[in-house]
Description:
Layout: E1 5-13, E2 16-21, E3 24-30, H1 35-44, E4 49-54, H2 55-60, H3 66-75, E5 79-83, H4 89-98, E6 102-105, H5 107-111, H6 113-123, E7 128-136, E8 142-146, E9 151-156, H7 157-166, E10 171-176, H8 188-197, E11 202-206, H9 213-220, E12 225-228, H10 230-233, H11 239-245
Parallel strand pairs: 1-4, 1-12, 4-5, 5-6, 6-7, 7-10, 10-11, 11-12
Antiparallel strand pairs: 1-2, 2-3, 7-8, 8-9
Amino acid sequence: MSDFTLYPAIDVRDGRVVRLRQGDYAQETRYADDPLELASRYSAAGARWLHLVDLDAARAGGYTLAPLLDELKRRTRLKVQTGGGVRGEADVDALLAAGADRVVVGSLAVREPGRVASWVARYGAERITVALDTRRDAEGRWRLPVHGWTEEGGRELDVLAAAYDEVGLRHLLCTDISRDGMLSGPNFDLYRYLCERFPRLRVQASGGVADAGEVAVARASGCGGIVLGKALLDGRFTLADVIAEQTPC
């Protein structure tokens, strides 16, 4: 499974593990798990990476999870890609200094792509994950909302993905917002399209995973990895089960 990465996800709001329905802060499900304890269980189950999201920072700015990130790095073997509220180089520097292996850049990657593209060169392609979270409009165009998915960013997925591909981006996390937290299955047509058009990118599928079999479909679609959130939290399958089912292609 060396060419495909599982990213169990922990979204944190007010210090608690939560999941949002389609990115709506008013539709929040809270879980009893402590973020550090949950991450430790994922690590013990065989996870190599963790996707950690600061939901408070995603809306208001100012990353708040540095103490948690420090604990994660000291107490587990997990590599961590994390984001929320990244507004400039100082934020990237701070997250890397706190132990992040990759910094996830979302809204700023849509609003100021030239600036974020320069970070790929400055920090290296393995240190930046661009998150292009997308929603299809009435005309069938894949738009890119920003600011915790509460505002329209005015750009299209195809155009921006192409621009980042040209500057050497390696890791692209793409969430179909309509599937996020819905357990309705990922948008595999979207991921197949992205992987075929941009074969140099390691696309991370995100949103809608409901059963373990969909992990294999994501891999067969050409994705470099998949983010697993609500389905794990709700016990639809275990991380250990998914890891055991994966075999090298």
